[in-house]
């Protein structure tokens, strides 16, 4: 079942009157099925973050539209859009984006508190998700008191606690050491399998990408190629390296 349909999305930075316009996305079209774990790869500046921000309704496309769960998101008004974002989208960022003045617990439950859920329901969801993601013991700590890997786990809990329709992750392993990075990728795989979460993950890291079921490669704002994971993980890994070497893309 399809969850996302992107139709001819373009993004031009710099307004109508601007003299230095920049075309960041050119007529991008693709579809994502419910439960897919899709990677987005491309060299630095190819438009990956722009695409993710548009799909997370943080930013708007210049032309084109996308349908999420059968709804044309461009037709939503400001209030509906805010509601859509909090109900349907879970974001995981490279730099975790936790609030420093709140404990991990407070950070994680923030989306539910904003939605006005009852305390006992919030506690129940908090318990399940933090148990699944292995951070129950550090919930009363502040972000600066725990490791990067633990902060990213908390950020993943925050993204998941609302049971979003889609999880958007922008270089989620970018600031993590290789062990914590691997842990997070295994966590995302777990979330994908157990919670049937649909995940769209931007990465420039081939190892991270090899956890995905499909990779979309972006070059200069256009979809350049797609690769599907087969049964052989090593082969998938090698194919990703081949495409990335053409795209010139290990740089951030
Ligand atoms: N707010 C902005 N205003 C102008 N140009 C931007 C803005 N955001 C990104 N860009 C440009 O658009 C291109 C794509 O950026 P981005 O989507 O961040 O790429 P990536 O995430 O693949 O590195 C880059 O050339 C970048 O400089
Ligand atoms: Mg980026």
Helix and strand run: EEEHEEHEHHHEHEHEEH
Largest sheet: 6 strands, mixed
Mean pLDDT value:
93
* Rg calc: 18 Å
What does this 3D model show about the protein?
The protein contains eight helices and ten strands. With 252 residues, the chain is α/β, with parallel strands linked by helices. The protein has a single domain, classed as Rossmann fold (3-Layer(aba) Sandwich). A six-stranded mixed sheet has the order 6-7-8-3-9-10, with helices on both faces. A four-stranded antiparallel sheet has the order 2-1-4-5, covered by helices on one side. Helix 3 crosses helix 4, helix 3 runs parallel beside helix 5 and helix 5 runs parallel beside helix 6. It is globular and about 50 Å long. The relative contact order is 0.19. The mean pLDDT is 93. The site of magnesium ion has 2 residues, from helix 1.
Q: Summary?
A:
The protein has 252 residues and is α/β, with parallel strands linked by helices. Helix content is 37%, strand content 25%. The chain has a single domain (2-247), classed as Rossmann fold, CATH 3.40.50.
Based on the model shown, name its key terms:
4-stranded antiparallel sheet, binds adenosine-5'-diphosphate, 252 residues, alpha/beta, Rossmann fold, 8 helices, 25% strand, binds magnesium ion, 6-stranded mixed sheet, 37% helix
Layout of strands and helices, then pairs:
Elements: E1 2-13, E2 22-33, E3 37-41, H1 48-55, E4 63-68, E5 71-72, H2 78-88, E6 89-92, H3 104-114, H4 119-132, H5 148-160, E7 166-170, H6 178-194, E8 198-202, H7 206-209, E9 214-219, E10 222-228, H8 233-247
Parallel strand pairs: 3-8, 3-9, 6-7, 7-8
Antiparallel strand pairs: 1-2, 1-4, 4-5, 9-10
Helix pairs in contact: 3-4, 3-5, 5-6
């Amino acid at each position: 079942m399809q969850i996302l349909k992107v139709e001819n999305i373009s993004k031009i930075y710099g307004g109508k009157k601007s003299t230095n316009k920049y075309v960041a996305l050119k007529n991008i079209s693709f579809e994502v099925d419910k439960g897919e774990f899709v990677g987005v790869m491309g060299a630095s500046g190819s438009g990956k973050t722009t695409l993710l921000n548009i799909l997370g309704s943080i930013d708007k496309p210049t032309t084109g539209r996308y349908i999420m769960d059968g709804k044309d998101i461009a037709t939503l008004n400001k209030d509906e859009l805010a509601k859509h974002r909090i109900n349907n989208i879970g974001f995981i960022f490279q730099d975790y984006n936790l609030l420093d003045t709140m404990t991990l617990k407070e950070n994680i439950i923030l989306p539910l508190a904003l939605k006005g859920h009852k305390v006992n329901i919030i506690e129940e969801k908090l318990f399940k998700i933090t148990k699944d993601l292995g951070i129950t013991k550090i919930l009363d700590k502040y972000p600066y008191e725990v490791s990067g890997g633990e902060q990213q786990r908390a950020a993943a809990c925050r993204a998941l606690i609302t049971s979003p329709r889609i999880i958007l992750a922008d270089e989620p392993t970018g600031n993590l050491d290789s062990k914590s990075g691997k842990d997070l990728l295994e966590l995302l795989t777990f979330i994908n399998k157990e919670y049937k979460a649909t995940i769209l993950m931007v990465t420039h890291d081939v190892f991270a990408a090899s956890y995905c079921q499909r990779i979309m490669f972006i070059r200069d704002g256009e979809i350049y190629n797609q690769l599907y994971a087969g049964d052989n993980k090593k082969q998938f890994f090698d194919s990703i390296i081949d495409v990335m070497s053409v795209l010139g893309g290990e740089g951030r």
